[in-house]
Amino acid sequence: MKIGIVGLPNVGKSTLFKALTKKQVDTSNYPFCTIDPNVGVVAVPDERLQQLADLYHSEKIVPAAIEFVDIAGLVKNAHKGEGLGNQFLSHIREVDAIAHVIRNFQDENVTHVAGKIEPGEDLNTIETELAMADIATIEKVLIKIESKIKSNDKDAPGQKIILKNIIIALDKGKKPDIAELKDDEQKFIKGLSLLSLKPELFIENIGEEQLNNFKPVIPNSIPICAKLESELADLDGTEAKNYLKELNIKKTGLDQLIVESYKLLNLITFFTAGPKESHAWTIVSGTKAPAAAGKIHTDFEQGFIRAEIINWKNLLDAGGEIPAKEKGQMKIEGKDYIMRDGDVVYFRFSK
């Protein structure tokens, strides 16, 4: 799963991305991740994993990970190809969600492209560019739809109406709502990779003086001081904790961003744990046990027999697998079991 980091020039996007990449994990443990200088594969903070590793005295710990992509090229009129417009649009279509970085700090040495700090206006510029790009995409599709209508394609008239309604919503500055569409209609719209339909979160890049009295301009935004995060990323764990304590900050902005990005993509974590390795695995909420097993190895899914499952907290409280089984807390689940966040699993499969 990839989160695209998007923002206007000089908002601190590159500083934020560099701080994220300093938290980069060993990509050899994540075969599906992209190896690219513009992609950071970052560990998802999760205290449960360390506690499981301590229980089993695991030799190795592998956290869950999420990918952040530094997407360059967003300027006003990017949808017309200005700046790195076309490259920008192609890169942003490849991500699963968008993290908007919006400047809300004062610094005379860092010029704002518009000459003034107005977070709301910056976000409006970004979303206008995304909407205009979507309208251009839809207009091209409508040309093909008209041809299909002339050929008596049964789905084309309905698709035309849906696309026209999406354009109306975008023209009004609204997000299109496709929740009420039929499954096949939703599949058609999702196939267009419209930017305005991607899940999004908002980051207000603030100054250090705003850390303890921050008032968001963008509703539900995450306050991050990219400059501070970059400094913290250069410190070892103990130094970083002491520095945060001095600043009266409980959790770094980057950790908050990573966790919120994980939630935004509707992801949950299950664990496998033992003396050799404690491993956090990422799946979409609602995933059944065989598909979860397939995240570890395709053979596990194809030969799935059953799963032995216990909640991580129950396992810790019991003091291990044997006492947990004696208390009846280790459950045997079949193919229809829907995985839950925090499950510790041992999969049984036929070879």
Automatic annotation (TrEMBL):
Residues 266-349 form the TGS domain. GO terms for cellular component: cytoplasm. SUPFAM superfamilies: P-loop containing nucleoside triphosphate hydrolases, TGS-like. Its cofactor is Mg(2+). The keyword rRNA processing does not apply. Residues 1-244 form the OBG-type G domain. The keyword Nucleotide-binding applies. InterPro entries: ATPase_YchF/OLA1, Beta-grasp_dom_sf, G_OBG, GTP-bd, P-loop_NTPase, TGS, TGS-like, TGS-like_dom_sf. Keywords: ATP-binding, Magnesium, Metal-binding, Nucleotide-binding. It comes from the Bacteria. ATP binds at residues 10-15. It holds the Pfam family MMR_HSR1. One of its GO terms (molecular function) is ATP hydrolysis activity. Belongs to the TRAFAC class OBG-HflX-like GTPase superfamily. OBG GTPase family. YchF/OLA1 subfamily. ATPase that binds to both the 70S ribosome and the 50S ribosomal subunit in a nucleotide-independent manner. This is Ribosome-binding ATPase YchF. The gene is ychF.
